[in-house]
Amino acid sequence: MAGYDLPGDKERIDHRLMRRSPVRLFHDLVALEDVVSWLASNGYHVVDVDASWTTSRHMFADLASAFPACCHDNFQCLHEGLAAGLADALDRSSGVALVLRGFDTFATSCWTDAQGLIDLVCEHAWQTAVGGRRFVTLVQTDTAMDLPAARSWAITPWHLDAPAQADPTPPVSGEI
Predict the structure, then answer these.
(1) Which single residue of 18, 69, 99, 171 has CA 20 to 30 Å from 26?
(2) Tally of CB atoms within 10 A around 124
(3) Mean pLDDT, to the nearest integer, of 66-72?
């Protein structure tokens, strides 16, 4: 799937996710599950990772497992492997969604590397978007906290783009 067809796509969840930032913050697990389900049912390749790492070594190892082209010891390898993994996944899907669950543990334990990871996925998201493709990262935290702002864009909580209604939960696919 190429870029968005406005105005037809402007209310799609994937478009709303990317409106403010390629990295979206979720505290509400139900809202996260609804969004992940919508993305999967709309052709996205979803990479769901337990990101409650306490060391950067664990982060590199888990992301190397999630994106097999990645090595497991530094950001340059992760950058190259993520690029290769995204290219492969985008050839077979309408987009890629990286879900980082429990990210507050990693951000608390390894703030600098947490910021480095957010910077990296933002960079890849913008490169993907410039090519007319879609890559979004959903960051789930159990505690309300300010996550590291990426150099390329700020992390925006999902509820800021939820439909204007009392319930900030995004609509499921049948409601769009």
Answers:
(1) 69
(2) 21
(3) 71
Whether the CB-CB separation of 27 and 157 falls below 8 Å is answered with yes
Both tokens assigned to 61: 């190892």
Q: What is the model's pTM?
A: 0.80
- What angle separates helix 111-130 from helix 75-91, to the nearest 10 degrees? 40
| H or E element in which residue 44 lies | strand 44-50
State the CB neighbour count (10 A cutoff) for residue 86. 24
Euclidean distance between CA atoms 143 and 77, whole angstroms: 30
| Strand arrangement, sheet containing 44-50 | 44-50, 95-101, 135-140, 23-26, 156-157
Q: Note the helical H segments in the chain.
A: 13-18, 29-41, 56-66, 75-91, 103-109, 111-130
N-term to C-term CA, the chain: 18
pLDDT digits (tens, 9 = 90+) for 105-138: 999 999 999 999 999 999 999 888 888 889 999 9
What is the average pLDDT across 48-62? 95
The set of residues, in sequence order, having a beta carbon less than 8 Å from that of 46 and lying 6+ positions away, is 36, 39, 40, 96, 97, 99
Q: How far apart are CA 136 and CA 19, in angstroms?
A: 11
